[in-house]
Each structure stands twice: as C-alpha cells, then as structure tokens.
Specification:
Chain lengths: 438, 470
C-alpha cells in the first residue's frame, strides 16, 4: 500500500520544524512514496517481473536570500537530521541570490478539486500476465513478426509538498501503462516498431488485442525500406512525432531559457511565431489527465494558459525564481507544462495526406537534433513516401532538417486531435523542409 | 566502505539466510546493496544557481530461473522489507526450478581508489573555481553572454551478496566538471560546451588552473560556430577527428554487440560472429580496466571483475558483451559487462570504455584525399535503432572539406548511417588514438551509466549528412 497523507505530512512537518529550529528563515519540503509493479513478456512467455517501492525526500533551506537543497531516499529521522544539518551548513556559505524565495503566498493553491487522478484498482500480476498473453498472441499472429516484447506497469504514488509559509498539500495519483515492441523481418530487412497506452484509470487502457495488432501492423509496413534522394519536400508528421514539436516549443518558452537568453523565442511575446491558424493551450485541470495537477512543484495554483493565440505568443511558462528575474508572476509552471496541446485544425487527415501530390510521412525520428538556442532542427527519420494520399513505400536512413522559426510558421494541422497523453497534437504537415538521403 | 548492516534490524546473518533460501532453486541472482552520496553545484547567469547534496540507500534483490528475471527493490533496508521482496520474487518464479551457479571469477586488481571526492575538497573552494570560470570567460570577450559551469561528484558503495554467503564489494568515485558558454555576435547566438571527468578526485583534474583549458575549449567551439554556414545535405565522405567522435562506434556498433539484443536475435549482428563486419585494420575493444576512466569498473554490478573484451579484430566480429544472465543463456561467460544505473534497476549488458585502436595513417592524408565532404571534430548526443541498424549523431563542431582542404565551419548537422555497414566504409584508420575527456553517459532502457570512448581519426567513404543546403 502506498503511504497515506498522515505519514507523509508527519515527515514533512518534522523536516520543516527541524530546519526552522536550526535557524533557516524559510524551507520547503517534498515527501513522496511510489510503488510500481511491472511484468515483462517476450515471445508469449513471462520474461521478468519488477517491483519497486520507493520513498523520496527533498528539502530546500533558505537563510534570507541564500538557498541550497538536499535529497534522499532514507527517511529515518536520524538520517533526515544529519542531512538537514548538512543542507543548512551549505546554505550558510552559498552566495546570496536576490531572486531566491518561496512563492508569493497569494499565488499558492487554496482549493484542491478532485481531478480523478487516482484509481485504487489493484491489477494483480496474474491479471497483467493474462493481458500480456492476449496482447502478444495478437501481436505475433503474422509470421513476419519474429520477436515481441511487452510490459504492463501499475503505479500508485502519493506526495506532500509543504513550506514554511503554511502550505501543506498533496494527493494520490495512479497510472497504468502497457507497451508492445515488435520486430518484423523479411528477405531485405529487419524492422522494429511499437504501440503503447498509458492512463490514470485501468478501465481506460486500450484492449490488449487492439494494441498488439496495431504494433504488428505498424512494424510490418516498414519492411523493405528504400532510401530517397536529397530534396525539398513537404513533411507530414505522425501524431507521435508532431507532439514532440510542442515539447520543443515548451522548452523554448520556459522562463529559465528566456531569463538566461538561451531561447530562439526570447522577446517574442505578442509576436507572430506560428502560422495564424495555430492555437496552443496548456490545461492543468483535465479530468483523468496524464499531465493534470492541482498546483505546480512549488505549490502555486495553475490555471489554463493559452500559450499561442492565432499564431501569436501570449505566455511563457513561469516559475517563481525565473519569474522574479523577468519581472513576471509565476503562472504555476515550475514543473513545466501540464496537459499541452495544439487545438485541432480544420482539414481532415485524408485531405492533409492528399494536399501535395508527393510528400514524406514521418513515423519515427532519432537523435537529439533540436537546438533551442538557434532553433536549428536536424534528426534522423523513418517513414513512408506518400503519393496521391497513399503510402507508396517505406523510407529510412534519411535526415530531415530546418529551423523551428520557419517550421512553426508553416504548420498545417489536421482535425484528428485526441487526448491520449500529457502532450497531444493532431497530424501535422510542414511544407518545404530539406530531406538528406542519397 | 559502507556497512549496510548497522542501520536497521537486518543482520548480515539474516541477509545471508534470506538470500540463500530465496535463490536456492534459481539459476542465478543476488542481493545488491548500494549507498551513494552525490553533489551538484551549478553556476549559471552570474550566480550560484543551485547546490544540491543527495544521499541514497537501498537494495535490489534479483532471482533468475531459466529466461525469467524477477526483481524487487526497496530503499528500506530492514528484515521485513527484504522478506517481502523475497516473497515477491518467489511468487513470480513459483513454477520454475533451476540450479544455482556459485561460480564467479575473482581478481585483486583495482582501477580507482576508495575515495569520496565530495569530502576531499571544501564547498568554498568549489564555489571559488566556479566564480573564477565565470569571471575569466566574461572578461575574455564581450561576446560572452551566458556562462554555466558545474561540478558533479559522487561516491557509490556497493555490496553484492550471493547465495551461500559470498560477498563482493566496490567503492566507486566519479566526478565531472563542465563549462557551457553562449556567445552573441551580430544577432547570432551559439553555444560551446566542454567538460572533463573520471573516477578520481577533483584535484587531479583541476590542478595547475586546468579549468582554464576547459573554458578555452568551450569558448573556441562557440566561436567556431558563430562563423558556421548551413551544412550540406546528402551522401559524402566524412573524416572523424580522434577522441570523443568515437561515440559513433558506441552507437553504430557497440549497442548492437550487447548480449541481450543478440540472444533475442533483435540485433543486426546476432548471426555474424566470425564474419567480416569491418574494413581490415579496424579493431574495436570494450575495456573496463583503464585506470580512473569514467567507464572503468573494478567489478561490474554482478560482481564479475571487468576485462578488456575484443569485439572486432582486424575487421572480424569476435565477441559480444555479456552479463551473467545472457551469457548463461548463450552458453558463454560473462565479460564483466553487467551494469545498472542504481539499485532501482535490473542489470543489463552495457559498454564500459569502447575504443577503436590506432592504425597507421595520418589525419592530413585523410583530409587531402577528400574532394567534397565534411570533417567532424566533436559531437553532441547520438542514438541507434538496434533492429534496423540505423544510427545518428549530431555534430557540435564540423567543417566542410573542399578539394583536400578544410573550409568553413558548418552548422550542427545530424549524420545518419547504417551500423552493420558503416565500418566497411572505413577506408583509413589514423595513428592518433585519443581517449575522450570523460563526459559520456549512455542511456539504455531508461538507465544512464557512465561510459568512455576512444578512437583515432578515421575516414568514412560514404555517410549521409543531414544539412539544409542541397
């Protein structure tokens, strides 16, 4: 069983009291407990089981404008005492930083509404095994599939965030995650692809058979890929790749990147950065949302933010420290975005596929090719050549490159948005990118 | 050395008893105890941005029968907690029986000292160096707009208890010093990053104002990039500089030679032992035994002493890297490559220091032989798809080569290639093998472990460069 609020609260207040007693002017503490159970399958039989049970504690102590932090997994009172002593000793010799402070009291979350983020259902390992059997049975039904690996993880977590300004709150969350990776082989190649489902509630997880089928289908269609020539071409990004564009955008508008001057979107508030049909929203209060939260990692209330309105940048993601540097109030994004999404476009997936007579559909990218200082983008990619709206043949060993400043202004979104993850995007087309191949 | 048995009601006798009783009917497994202490101090934007100290303590209990691995971890070292882990393992393996393999090789060699780098140097002296770095770089050039510098130090103590009571221990220091600088000139911004590290004390790296060299190198890379032009796109010849660019070997070849992918036959190399997979003259080893290197280990995380494993010898594939589990299932022996990020994770076969050995050509000869291509000096991260064999890495410092001469620097481009065939495209191997500065972290299945790489300059006849200029 995951530890209850009372236990976590007692540890949190022990820490705060101790820090105060030692002379800290302020302190904040997070105590969390998490239990995960995973079952792994390979080729239709049990391969591994994994149980994890972890406590975690992190404390920040302040002496005026001086601050330092410690973290530990050892919650014995004696150990906590040693660590807080060490933390406070470090605080004393850390230089002052005028922007260090707890969040403004009036921004702290006051009312916690239930977002239905916890499902207490226990999905016993035997049931996980049954689910994975069904999943792998369907994933391996085609004889081109030569290897299947799948897993099911059940997680239950609880946490308390408390600070010396009287904030003390937390809540339980759960997640159920299942994934399937399949390998297919033909006379020309061996390819891998995957499918997964992750939800707060067990009943929302995809059916085992559907998940296995989809993973297999996505893998088999990649067999016998060709390399294409180097050219300028419109690129269609599958949903699982297009949502990555949002993650890059989010890191480029984090107050820390803006304050440090290391973002290509610095000083772009109220300027056009996307095509004017584009709206980007971050919504923390989605019921059962994978990214939902009642408050951010500092306890600050978080409301829905329209980050992009008709292509114009409206907000950064602001935490207390960097907010003070930028003269902005925290908007409850100390831990980053919550449920981030592009509003859906007004063209159907089919019409987007047919928009150009010839385009490239990307299903996977590899490499760390996003530079948020310059906006340059260059990654390895695999996908399909599309002609007249149809997949013609699979393509691999190519790279796609561009600069986000231009790419963002050339985005066209389909109307197929679904809320599956904490970051969601419809299928996306970007015109005129460079492909490097043969 | 940590004593894991003075912190709770769990005695060594209890632990031995529970371990032996749990693993009795299994093929392998162990109790892994770990205590780590780590610090991170970051200067950013003219200020000490964070100073964090962290201590972690826990155990991971593993039982293996046939192909099934059961694992359970907790950060509460107590009798109850270990018993409940034991029950959890038994419930997974209830229908499978095995015979415990008590054999584990021994060695007295050690590749680093039992030190705690964090305590060896006072916090004040570390803060002082970080401030000096900041002042030095900002005074150096008005174009310097941002400086980030950091220290990270760690001491990890582990103890492995096997069925029958055999215990193996190791104490591992690790440090890292990193500088990142951003320059702005004529509206253009570029960053340069450089770092050093290894299993040593900070002082070994920072004596004689060594930090200045790190600053100069980060500044030099950023300055080069300020002048960079769009990179070409398409297939061409690529000269790789010595040292860190061996990340190519790590991604393109290394991962595909890890035992698990080959046992599962999901690696493109699984049926190629004894076959020619590289040009003649290409020899690649994975070595855990180099003193004080980031990827070195006295024993791996299963207790096996590490070794120098020859992977490819003169173009022929010789060995895979193995942990005990995959070695047993493939009827071979562990190469001391079983590693885990910490007690929260299962052991996987992983790389240590992966090195391509020197040949006898010079970098000059390589550059002169290229009509049109690029010269790649340094890289950011890389990634590989084991199954298709395709890998990428991102240049952080690269130049055009035109008619045998090095030309303008080019913007960060991704290089993409095919792992199984890339080494056959190596047409020259340099005489200038160099180790990387000690900065690599390899990610696999969500676990990061410190690794090293090394190589001489090499010429690759054909690779796809992912620039924007057609």
């Amino acid at each position: 069983m995951v530890k209850d609020q009372e236990f976590l609260k007692s540890k949190a207040s022990y820490c705060l009291d101790l820090a105060k007693k030692m002379g800290a002017t302020d302190a904040s503490v997070t105590v969390g407990h998490s239990i995960s159970e995973t079952v792994n399958f390979r080729n239709k039989s049990l391969e591994a089981s994994d149980r994890s049970d972890g406590l975690a504690l992190s404390i920040e102590t302040y002496l005026g404008k001086r601050r330092s932090s410690i973290s530990s997994s050892n919650l014995l009172d004696e150990n906590i005492k040693t660590l807080i002593e060490k933390c406070f000793e470090t605080t004393k010799i850390t230089p002052e930083d005028e922007f260090n402070s707890l969040p403004d009291k009036n921004l702290l979350a006051k009312q916690i509404s239930s977002l239905n983020l916890y499902d207490e259902t226990r999905f016993e390992n035997d049931k996980k095994i049954k689910y994975l059997k069904d999943l792998e049975e369907s994933a391996s039904s085609d004889n081109q599939i030569i290897n299947t690996e799948s897993s099911f993880t059940e997680n239950k977590s609880n946490f308390i965030l408390a600070n010396s300004d009287g904030f003390c709150d937390g809540y339980k969350t759960s997640s159920f995650t299942t994934s399937c990776v399949t390998v297919a082989k033909d006379e020309n190649s061996m390819e891998r692809d995957y499918e997964f489902s992750s939800k707060r509630h067990l009943s929302d997880i995809k059916q085992a058979i559907d998940l296995g089928n989809k993973a297999a289908k996505q893998t088999i269609r990649k067999l016998s890929p060709k390399k294409i020539g180097s050219e300028k071409i419109s690129i269609i990004f599958d949903k699982r790749i297009s949502k990555g564009m949002l993650s890059v955008f989010a890191s480029a508008i984090s107050a820390s990147a803006i304050a440090r001057g290391t973002s290509f979107l610095k000083d772009k508030i109220d300027e056009q950065v996307f095509a004017d049909s584009i709206n980007v929203i971050d919504k923390p209060d989605m019921i059962k949302g994978m990214g939902s939260q009642n408050f951010d990692s500092e306890g600050v209330n978080s409301n829905t933010l329209q980050l992009i309105e008709n292509g114009i940048l409206k907000n950064y993601l602001v935490d207390t420290y960097n907010g003070k540097k930028l003269n902005l109030k925290s908007n409850g994004r100390s831990g980053g975005t919550t449920n981030l999404y592009f509003e859906k476009g007004n063209i159907s997936y089919e019409d987007l596929m047919k928009k150009d007579s010839r385009s490239l559909y990307i299903t996977e990218t590899i490499g760390h090719g996003s530079n948020i200082v310059t906006g340059d983008y260059s990654v390895g990619a695999t996908g399909f050549l599309v002609e007249d709206g149809e997949f013609k043949y699979p393509v691999n060993e190519i790279t796609i490159a561009g600069n986000f400043k231009d790419m963002f202004k050339n985005i066209i979104l389909a109307n197929d948005l679904e809320f599956e993850y904490s970051v969601n995007s419809p299928t996306m087309m970007i015109e005129g990118m460079t492909v490097a191949g043969k | 050395m940590s004593n894991f048995f003075n912190k709770s009601d769990l005695t060594r006798q209890d632990a031995d008893k529970i371990v032996s009783e749990t693993l009795n009917n299994c093929d392998d497994g162990e109790l892994y105890l770990e205590e780590s202490k780590s610090e991170s101090i970051v200067l950013d934007d003219n200020k000490i941005k964070s100073s964090n100290y962290s201590s972690d303590l826990g155990f991971g209990f593993r039982a293996i029968s046939n192909e099934v691995v059961a694992y359970s971890y907790s950060n509460e070292i107590s009798k109850d907690s270990l018993k409940s882990s034991s029950e959890n393992l038994k419930s997974t393996l209830k229908s499978i029986k095995g015979t415990y393999n008590h054999e584990i090789p021994k060695s007295n060699k050690k590749f680093y000292e039992d030190i705690n780098p964090i305590e060896q140097k006072s916090l004040n002296s570390k803060l002082e160096v970080l401030n000096k770095v900041n002042d030095f770089l900002r005074k150096k050039d008005g174009a310097v707009k941002q400086v980030t510098a950091s220290f990270a130090g760690e001491q990890k103590s582990i103890e492995i208890i096997r069925s029958g009571g055999e215990a193996l221990t190791d104490v591992r220091p690790l440090i890292r010093f990193n500088v990142s600088v951003m320059l702005e000139k004529n509206g253009r911004k570029e960053t340069g990053v450089y770092g050093i590290g290894g299993r040593q004390s900070y002082d070994d790296y920072l004596k004689n104002d060594n930090w200045k060299n790190v600053c100069e190198e980060a500044f030099r890379i950023a300055s080069v990039n300020l002048e960079s032009k769009p990179a070409p796109a398409g297939e061409m010849k690529v000269v790789l500089g010595p040292g860190w660019p061996a990340i190519l070997i790590h991604e393109a070849i290394g991962h595909g030679l890890e035992g698990d992918f080959n046992r599962k036959k999901t690696s493109a190399f699984h049926d190629l032992i004894g076959e020619k997979v590289a040009s003649e003259g290409v020899t690649i080893v994975d070595d855990g035994t180099i003193d004080n290197r980031r990827g070195s280990l006295t024993i791996d995380d299963e207790g096996t002493p590490t070794e120098r494993t020859v992977l490819i010898e003169n173009g022929i594939l010789k060995n895979f890297m193995q942990d005990r589990h995959n070695a047993r299932l493939m009827n071979t022996r562990s190469t001391g490559s079983g590693r885990r990020e910490n007690y929260r994770h299962i052991v996987l076969p992983r790389m240590r220091n992966t090195m391509m050995l020197s040949g006898n050509q010079t970098q000059d000869e390589m550059i002169k032989s290229v009509d049109k291509g690029i010269f790649a000096v340094s890289f950011g991260g890389g990634q590989v798809d084991i199954t298709s064999g395709k890998f990428v890495f991102n240049c952080t410092e690269a130049y055009e080569i035109n008619n045998g001469k090095i030309g303008s620097p080019i913007k960060g481009a991704t290089l993409i290639g095919d792992g199984p065939s890339i080494l056959k495209e190596v047409s020259m191997v340099g005489n200038d093998m160099m180790l990387d500065p000690g900065i690599g972290t390899c990610g696999k299945a969500g676990q990061g472990v410190p690794v090293g790489v090394a190589q001489p300059s090499i010429l690759i006849d054909k690779m796809t460069v992912g620039g924007t200029k057609l």
